[in-house]
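Homework-ish question, so no full write-ups if that breaks the rules, but can someone show me the predicted structure for this set?
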Amino acid sequence: MKPYAKTKTSETLSNKTDRAAGSPKTPQAEPTAPRDASKGNPLILQTSIRWLVYIILFLAFFLFWYGHHAPGGGFIAGLITAAAVLLAYLALGSRWLHSLDFDFKYLVAIGLSLALVCGLAAVLLGRPFLTHSFGVLSLPLLGDIQWTTATVFDLGVYCTVCGACLSIITAIGESGRDGRPDRKVHIPGRQNPRHKDEA
Amino acid sequence: MLAAIILLPFLYGIALACCGCKLSPRAGLFVLPVPIVLFLYFVWQIPRVAAGAGAAFSCPLLPQLGIDFALGLNGVSLIFALLISGIGALICCYSIGYLKPQENLTAYYCLILFFLGAMLGVVVARNLMVLYLFWEWTSVTSFLLIGFWHDRSRARYGAQKALFLTVCGGFCLFAAFVLLYTVAGSLDIDTLLQRKELILHSPAYIPILILTVLGAFTKSAQIPFHIWLPDAMEAPTPISCFLHSATMVKAGIYLLLIMTPLLGGNALWFAAVSGVGLLSLIWGAYQALKQTDLKAILAYSTVSQLGLIVALIGFGSQASLTAALFHTVNHATFKGSLFLVAGMIDHSCGTRDVRRLGGLAKVMPRTAVLAACGCLAMAGLPPFNGFLSKELFFGSALEAVSGNLAFLGGAAWLIPALAVLGSIFTFAYCLLILFRVFAGPLPAALPQTPHEAPRIMLWPSAILASFTLIIAFFPNLLARYLLTPAISGLLGETVRIHIAFWHGFNLSLLMTLLVFALGFALYKAWPQARKLFFGLPKLCSANAVYDRLIPGNGLIAAAGKVTDLYMTRRLQDYIVFNLLFFLCMTLGSIFCHVHGLRLLPEISPVSPFAYAWAACIIAAAIAVVRSQNRIPAVLSLGAIGYSVSFFFAVFCAPDLALTQLLIETVSLALFFLAFRHLPASFADKPQSRRRKRFNLLIALLTGCCVSLVALIGQSNRMFSGISGYYVENAKALTGGSNIVNVILVDFRGLDTMGEISVIAVAAIGVFVLIGLSPVKPFNRQGGDRQ
Amino acid sequence: MELLIAIVIGALFSAGIYLLLSRTLLRILLGVSLTTHGVLLLLLAMGKLNAGAAPLLHARAAAAYADPLPQALILTAIVIGFGITAFLIVLCYRAYQVLGSDDTELCRGAENE
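A: Not a homework solution, just the prediction itself:
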């Protein structure tokens, strides 16, 4: 237990000073993960990310749209989108994330609702839940487009996966930042740290 | 209608439990109508049952096992049902005055309602399993009611003892019923009565007899299972009156009565039942003399009076069965009123110790009158109903000498002698209760100033006490409407019952007078007799056996030790148990079917890259295990993930490859983001060598088992799969070309919906866990800003 | 190939279970991840390996297609495995915060539980 006590004391004490100074805190024997992810990132990444994100998002959209006929689909597209935002977060830091000002849990809710609505629409038309239909749409310039209602469902999947991944990442990444101090609990001298007042 | 009546208390109790918190102070008033309604229903049924057309209900539950939810009212059931519902109503009324509003009244009345329903179910059931179900339910509710004031350790001890003994008896009863089913092929009581000969001559007859009788004796607190009843007096007094003197303990009596035509009629039954009954009569009365707590005296007196009833059932003649039923009713009236009086004394004086009480007749005159009715009735003095019962008891005892118990020969004369002895003790303690508590000088130092009890508590006791007189003067009303149908139903022939005060100068009258004389003498000589009684050597005490066997260092400690063996509170041990079970199941089922399985699949060609890939994965896995720092470990995990995605790509699963690639990337990012909060060390904490080797063994065994499963899965196709359907119909039914995606969002869309729900729940879980406010730490550094 | 993949699956499971039985929380977490990867390989092995082309219906029909059903199952398993891993990471993090130690031996239940 002793090494941990030492770590915790130094970390909790250094919290107050470090937050003021903005310098990275140091856990024992580990390469430092900077408090703000953007500090210390190479300039190249920070510059290129601005247009890289759009390329990745376009790739995601492409894979989503053609998922029904080629490798792709809602899961992959959602993950690629999440990867894009993650890359931007790692490159530009939490200031960028806060400027985005979007709670990703709403994306999860939107995705689940889309999937549900897609299924219920079939019920309203008298068919079993989640019955899909498909067809071919002939547009003058674009030619034959194969449409299917499964795309709506896939959109729901896309939103859910993307929103879930991003909310997990942002929650973990943002915990311990300003607004929520590191809640390391220092229990002096206890061999068996067990909280009796925890339900 | 009958089923509704039986279910009414349960439903009402559930409704009360649901909205109980609002009703709590007034719960009693809400509950009071239920037993009153039940009582009126059963009164309404009296002429029907007398005519032989009682209500019935049947509904199949498990026909393959012969279990039907069959209910039926006959004479015996009706008597008990009237007792249960009537006394239940009086108890509800009494409890309103007895319990303070701060108590957990909702639970109390719910339990009373459940008990009421269960007890009615016991007496009304026509199928043995239904009877058993309700029987055990009464045990459970009795346990909960005895332990009502569960912060008292004596109450917990008493409840546990009662539960243990009655449930053991219930288990014996269950075994008896199962044996009856295997012998006679039916669980319906009426059908069993028709197959009586089959049961009597089967080899399982003696076990059935013993088990049934054990069940009845544990419930009715007969020797040597009577030890739970005095400890059950920790319950509130209305409960002691309702359960432990008037109704629940009579369940054993009821069982013996309905089993009399089935199992009775031979020497073993007569000897066993009447023997135990007489023993309980004497032992209970003897112990009652030695007690100082008013409720304890009444408890042992209940044991003794129940012994009297059991002995009467054991005698087995028509007269004795009549006397048994008659005394059941009488006992309920006088014992019930005496328990309620004890409650009133406790309520107003603050103590139940007879050594400290005295002279209460001056301050509580009405209570004194009620107590006098109860005590004198129990003692067997005219003009109370107890006198009639005692007369019938002595008459039956004398009859049994030359009747059913004649096989005992000369020893049969012991029976009336024992009856007289028991009655002498009964007489003595009745007078002791009455005169020591109510006569004499008023003691100066009582915990509370004694005052007359409130009317809401007086009325139930008065009603019961009045019955002691009403039944005494109009016994044939009872006989004609209730006893005659009951006995006729039991014996299967129409009988005529007439009860009278005066039977002429005969031996039973002589015995009665002898009891009065000697009992009065014992009462007068009590101080000297007390020394004698306490000076007698102590025989083997059932209580001592119980105390050594069960609580404390006995069974419960042993159960604790067994649990401690496997509940080590260590996470790894629980994982090991799971893995061992998994191994046993899998390997076991493989070995059971080993001759039908091919082990080695057709080996498809392996390219050198495959060897390299496999080596890479295995090396990375070993690297994760052996690494001492967390970053190399996580990077090795990433390497494994990417290798798996490479494998997917090579084996024609492009969707999978893409997904795995992305997931692995995001996971790695997640790990590194989380490392800030996780401890720095990665190397395993020191474990003993033996433990490490054991872990390694389990891990290798599991790995081998799973390899085996993989091999067997690849080599044996039990049936052609369903994938062909998807391949053929993807284009036609869905218009899509990516079969995997089509399966996910179209064919098996519901599964995907479940999957995204899981992922959403994981995200919400992560959010909640991180956003939870901290537990109050002992040494806060910095502010807590949420 | 089948034998090889069975061996690889076994190795992954052994490593994963060995890590699961350790005392450090992070090791348990990595054990779960390893076992999950083993399960993915096991699922794929249940379909015939080398059966045919990727399950994509193009204009030219292939002679045989790889089994699409295990692939759909694996896709689900991958995503859910990720969700579980993420949740476990946060659970470890929170447990370490509250209990102050990542040693499961020190975080055992109390005697009377």
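Now go work out the reasoning yourself. Hint: Chain C has a mean pLDDT of 88.
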